[in-house]
Predict the 3D structure of the following.
Amino acid sequence: MVDNPLLVPIARLLHQYPDGLSEYALMKQLEFDGLELDADPDVTADLLLFRKHFLVMNALYRLEPVLYEQGYEISISALHIQLHPLENRSTSAQQVPAKPHPLRSYYLDWSEFEKSSNAYVRRLLDAFWRRYCGDNRIDEACQVLGLEPGAAPEAIRRAYRRLAARHHPDRGGDAEQFRRVREAYELLMA
């Protein structure tokens, strides 16, 4: 396993902040100089931030069994990272079951860091924004048509026809509302 140079500094900082801190606050305390995260002249700010974030999360997940052996459990999220003293500890660090966390295996897989590139990070960000915006737009489209998310295509067609007839400008309806109904229909039927 690749040696993460942030293991010791992060462990030290976690002990210095018993009330916990955010990932952002943790990153501000760390020294990334000398790690050559931006050695390539084409490194974008997004890629540099991704690499710093990956190193921090990798270190946190790798510290879990070590900190357990020292009598602490660690809670990890971007908004709050904190050590919690263990009350009753009867197993060794090797026997500590890895807490199921969807990102744990991702951050412990060093190949994810190695394959990071500007294009890789751009794809990750694009996928995130598509999911984030898409979910909101679908919910809004359902509200416009008066439907529950996941409505069947036939229900979408019926709602569209009913609302289009009501709001069509040629029939004295509101042109803006008709446009919203049409856009909602097109999004849900795509």
In short: The chain has a mean pLDDT of 86. The first helix runs from residue 7 to 16. Residues 67 and 84 are 10 Å apart (CA to CA).
